[in-house]
Amino acid sequence: MTDKLTMLCQINGGCMGCCGHDFISPDKIREAIRLNTLEFNEIKPKVTAQFIKFRDRAYPSDLRHGVCRNLIQHEDQIFCPLHPTLHKKDLREGHCDIHHLCKTAREFITWDDEKKKRFLDFVASKKLDNIEFSMKMDNSSLLEEFDLQKS
Ligand code: SF4
Ligand code: SF4
Questions:
Q1: What is the pLDDT of residues 71-119, one digit of tens each?
Q2: Which protein residue's CA is at the shortest distance from atom 1 of ligand 1?
Q3: Which residue stretches of the chain are H helix?
Q4: Which ligand is nearest to the CA of 4?
Q5: How many domains would you assign to the chain?
Q6: Disulfide check for 84: which of 35, 60, 90, 101 has CB 3.0–4.6 Å away?
Q7: Which ranges in 56-129 belong to alpha helices (H)?
Q8: Residue 4 near residue 84 (C-beta atoms within 8 A)
Q9: Domain for residue 33, yes or no?
């Protein structure tokens, strides 16, 4: 998740496309998030020091099935508990590339409202779950399919 959150980063139950790399499969991603969430719930962070304790339980490079160990899920929403929307400061600093935007999001923010709506409708028509959606954001395949569709 980036600090330049676009609408694309938040729809479909939350996008986690930037929260790891070399993803193995949707099932492995779900398993990683499930285990991260269990570990988060064991600590139950309330104050900043506890969130940092959760974050620092593993090195940034120590991914789980290619997924960042900080990524968790509550109900149907995937999110980063270190994100500045939840704290007075950005607890992700030094832990991941907080300025990263995927190619799809970079293009999306340059479009006019009509094109953005067409893309959002296109995404909705695919009826993807949040993991499938994230993988397709990360690898630009939805963007490529959208571009082909209009030509
Ligand atoms: S992969 Fe793209 S759409 Fe998803 S959170 Fe990252 S920047 Fe946003
Ligand atoms: S620290 Fe948070 S935003 Fe950064 S990669 Fe991990 S889960 Fe994603």
A1: 999 988 899 999 988 888 899 998 898 888 999 999 999 999 999 999 9
A2: 17
A3: 7-10, 26-43, 48-55, 103-108, 113-126, 130-138, 141-150
A4: 1
A5: 1
A6: 90
A7: 103-108, 113-126
A8: no
A9: yes
Residue 24 maps to a domain: yes
* In-domain check, residue 2: no
Ligand nearest, relative to CA of residue 83: 2
Residue 48 has pLDDT above 60, yes or no: yes
Residue ID of nearest Cα to ligand 1 atom 7? 101
Q: What is the pTM of this model?
A: 0.89
CA atoms within 13 A on the CB side of 140: 10
pLDDT in the model for residue 150: 58
The pLDDT assigned to 14 comes to 86
Q: 7 CA distance to ligand 1 centroid (A)?
A: 9
Average pLDDT over residues 5-30: 89
Closest ligand 1 atom to residue 5 Cα is 8
**Cα 102 to ligand 1 centre (Å):** 5
Closest ligand 1 atom, residue 8 Cα: 3
1 in a structural domain: no
